[in-house]
Amino acid sequence: MDVDERVRRAFAAGERLNLGGADVPAALLAELLTAEPPTRRAALRLHEARVTGRLDAPPESFRDLGDGETATPRPGDAQGVDLDSATVHGGVFLRRSDVHGEISLRHATIGGVATFTGATLRNPGAVALRLDRADVGGGVHLLGGCRVEGELRLVGTRVGRILRLAGATLTNPGGHALLADNCTVDGPLDCRDGFAATGEVSLLEARVTGPVFLEGARLDNPDGTSLRATGIVTGSLMHCCDGFTATGRVTMRSARIGGRLCFHDARLQGVWCTGAEAVELDLRFAAPPAGRLDLRYVRVALLRDDPATWPADLRLDGLTYQTLNPLLGPAQRLRWLASTSDGLPPQPYEQLAGVYRALGHDEDARTVLLAKQRRRRATRPWWTWPWSWLQDVTVGYGYRPQRAALWLAALLVAGTAVFTVWRPAPVNPGQPPALYPVVYTLDLLLPIIDFGQEPAYRPTGPGQWLAFLFIAASWTLATTVAAGFTRVLTRN
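== Membrane-associated oxidoreductase ==
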């Protein structure tokens, strides 16, 4: 029995036929797919077939395959087309077709393009199109309003040139609308022009050598993850912007974006980008995300954001960037850091201060580091608060050294007034040196310098207690200055 007859009989019986690499004319398959099914069980199920020529099925050719008497096949009905492990030297064209049941091209090798432009693929609650581990050299196209009711699977698939889903509508509520984990695209991934997905879009560990376009796309999976791109690697930009809407989490943990990762003018429920890397990250959302924005351990060169769209739930620990746009002053940026909900980690403050310092804004950097110390104080045991507060008041933890001079001047003025009113008595009444209240006060306030006044005079009355107070203040001031400068010098 020749191959043609074997294929026809298997098709009529709906049986799986292993051809072991035998050649099958594409025209024969097109004939079977376009003709009235000879039996109710008719289905095309070929394994390891070599399809010669271009498989180009005319519109409407696949209607009700697998169940010729049922107008709307149910989930679980016989598969429509099974070409697992087939080799197609040309392309596969199922344009404007209406397919009921699963189209399976697992492990298939297609030399040209696989085009489903304008097609409707129906297998609700199950897989509508399966291209797992297939190799499609010319690219995969689901354009022209293509509708997929069920799961679109490209797990481990290699797609040459381009994966185009622009304008397509994928519907699989509660499941995967697109499952393209470990997929490799040797070119761009295009999901623009009104692309919509109900169910999860999963690009876990996908590799895209070109850009990923999701401008204006709408992803709807409110009870779960709408876009799962954990570990995705792109050779260029990834644009989830210009009206991109995701109802459900967007997860991009450990993503590696070769250019710009953009969420400009996007409406999101929550974004998890832990450990991601990109050249530029644009967070100028259309509105603040309703859920969490997790940027922990993200590494970017340029971070763009907008204070008007900072979310309430923000995680920044470990985030590193070289510059900010807009830079903003420390007052606004400190509000940004204060909105974090991951405790009180010091790293975000140190990162911001480092950027200010690199741009020559040293005073702004010191303001940020001072705020870090003040915020840390709230996390420490209560018995450390007095010493911490004293360092803050006196020298701003070393970041406001000019305060030491102000305190010294204030004590000097006070001491001069006190010892002018309550003049100290000479220790040696015979020939005491002339008393200068200013110099005497300095002698008390500067313990390592001896002007000869303090040994020659002894305070009396209230002045004696005030002298003790000045000595204590001088040592306290010296200690806080030393502690503050040690902290600053150690950091530098």
